[in-house]
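Q: I'm writing up a methods section and want to include an example of the input and output format. Could you take the sequence below and give the corresponding predicted structure tokens, formatted cleanly so I can copy it straight into the document?
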Amino acid sequence: MTDQAKTIPERQIALIDELRSLGSETSWVEFKENNVDAETIGKTISAIANGARLADHHFGYLVWGIRDDDRAIVGTTFEPSKEKKGAQLLTFWLNQKLDPPPHLDFQVIPHPHGRVVLVEIPAATSSPVTFDRAAYIRIGSATTALSGHRQTERALWAKLQPYAWEATVALQFLDENEVLNIFDYPRYFELTQTPLPDNRKGIFEKLNADRLIAQDVGGRWNILNLGAILFAKRLDRFERLSRKAVRVIEYEGSDRTKTRRRHEGVRGYASGFEGLITFINGLLPENEHIGQAFREEQRVYPEIAIRELVANALIHQDMTVTGAGPMIEIFVDRIEITNPGVPLNDPARLIDLPPRSRNEKLASLMRRMRICEEQGSGLDKVIASVELFQLPAPDFRAEADNTKVVLFAPRAFANMTSAERARAAYQHAVLRFITGERLTNASLRSRFGIEDQNAAQVSRILREATRLNLIKLADPSSPRAGYLPFWA
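A: Here is the clean output for your methods example:
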């Protein structure tokens, strides 16, 4: 039995006692003695899930065996595993009637004062929870249709819109020693450049203020997803987060037929980031003094590009996609960095548009810890460093339900495809536009390292990029005025 499993009865008894101490008109808790009417239970679960979100709680609770008026424990004969609605088990029937179907865990708790049945109901996330196609809410002591209370309905939708994965509980009911053993708190204080408090109270206050942990019942603590994904000493301690560990795979050639090395990260993203970047850079080949731009660099790929692209994959992934996490694949001719979740911006506009993240608190804290660049400047620096190294233009893609960035190894201009040259012209135009300049034949020659006498080669690239609607003339009456990105 795991440590987590051992603490459940103790936690649930403490939880029941805390719920009993609440006021009588709580929208996210309801007590019953032996009422097992399936329709009533379904409506109540809908109401509690919605009420919990309104009250900013992760869970709501439905409890049998407690008298409603004085909260005395009177025990219950309700057997959730045996109760049926028609020919179906109650739990299965509820799962069909509730939408989106919440994970309902009916628990029989041997409380010292009597037998209690508790169901923990996750708060609504993306939309109100409905029962039989209608959403419910508790108003005072009554369970009623949400549609009849427009102001409450608007307030619920307002709560649902900013709901974030980061605030969900990753591990619950831990004592202070357990939190400190699981959580890399010294690294948090180091990265945030905050003095380490000389007492536990100060440590927990800081972690709680950044919403990395939250208080649970019975004087215990919860580690939230944000805290776990950033500062876990071992991500495999968190069942739902273990597959979010970063995978690095090195191949022997330019395809996936032969794997040379495979590595899976163990630590949280912030705790392990520097080690991850060092590991990746250690796998990359060194350049062979290809040109002036490389004289001060030791690696084929600019480190700022690796750092920013990996950080972006961690920050902008869709954390709700289960069973998949960020992956870095290293081939002899390229690096592919993939994260679950389609990009929230058009891949062609990732360079210039302000980044949109599904994980705003994660992104903000990563920037604050200087793990990645300030908002809106990271990919600019990626493109600028790629141009300095005269590498082929990176390829930003949306593939199925993933976002992928391909960073290419050095390749002679003669060996680049027409599409690659046009993409480079577009990205160069974006970079110039951001800095208040325009793409010209001369600037693109410099980007590719082409001699002035070969300006005709660049003219062909400009015509092709224009034909593909990637760039446009800044002034159609004066080609010398330069070019702009298609969207400018």
